[in-house]
Amino acid sequence: MLWVPQKGKLLVEHNTGTVGSLTAGTSVTTGAASSTKGTAVQLIASTAFEAYWLTVIAYAYGNTATDSQGCLDILTGAATEEVLIPNLLMGFCGTQALGPGRGHKRWDFPLYIPAGSRLAAQAAGMRLSTAMRVMVFLYGGDGIPHYQVGTKVTTYGVTVPVGTTVVPGASGAEGAWTQISASSSENHFAIVPSFQPGTDTTLNTLAYAYDIGIGAATEEEIAQSYWYAVNADEAMFGAINSMPTFQDIPSGTRLSVRVSNSGVNDLGNYNGALHCVS
């Protein structure tokens, strides 16, 4: 059978403004303790159409010679917000001034968000009571998406504000598989990575390839080479590409990651997490 997509304009909505700016998006401030989220901040008051895809971008939290581990929630609803996407590892995200591809963390999710929804964000991090910036892009409209869409994201491997310790393989070698979750809590159909440096405050200019695996000790690799990079300003960007990996993941599945490094590892460990859509 030939599938013909429904015709119509793909609508886009965002919170970045309409002119060029080094402070595009919305300011979100971390909590007064590293394990505590700050006050929720509105990103979009009321979405204009039914959306089927959500892009989240974080920047301006990393700082030279500073431990900048952190995590970010995207929320939906009124003042008693519900967490839609928990604990994105936004740590060490650089600044808009570093230029495209050198400062931003990015995640993409196949999520259904009804028209009229309020979106907000909150964050926690090692840099206390510190402002960062968050951008969101919604895609949708009257057409029917040609991919599966979910309503919930479950994050594995995070203890606010850090992820699970992952040791990259050095100089292009694959690191060991690291378990992020022994058993997924429900069925999922898509998976999105998070990655950030650990406590290191003197990062080198390095590139990292991040792989995702499922199953027992002889992992099945389902995604290869989500790319991240850091520089000597202690800024990390990625993932490139940021497309989710679509695969049916039954409840009870073991989830793991491994990372390879372009050079000699920094002294600090890195940490990872996985965000699974259902």
Question: How would you describe this protein?
Answer:
With 278 residues, the protein is mainly β. It folds into two domains: 11-16 and 23-140, Jelly Rolls (Sandwich); 153-277, Jelly Rolls. The protein has no helices and 19 strands. The chain has strands at 11-14, 26-29, 41-44, 51-59, 70-76, 82-88, 105-109, 119-125, 131-140, 153-156, 164-166, 178-181, 188-197, 206-214, 220-230, 236-240, 245-249, 255-261, 270-277. The strands form four sheets. Strands 1, 2, 4, 7 and 9 form a five-stranded antiparallel beta sheet that branches. It is globular. 44% of the residues are buried. The model has no long low-confidence stretch (mean pLDDT 92).
Name the descriptors.
single chain, mainly beta, globular, 278 residues, Jelly Rolls
Task: Write the SSE topology.
Blueprint: E1 11-14, E2 26-29, E3 41-44, E4 51-59, E5 70-76, E6 82-88, E7 105-109, E8 119-125, E9 131-140, E10 153-156, E11 164-166, E12 178-181, E13 188-197, E14 206-214, E15 220-230, E16 236-240, E17 245-249, E18 255-261, E19 270-277
Antiparallel strand pairs: 1-9, 2-9, 3-8, 4-7, 4-9, 5-6, 5-8, 10-19, 11-19, 12-18, 13-17, 13-19, 14-15, 14-18, 15-16
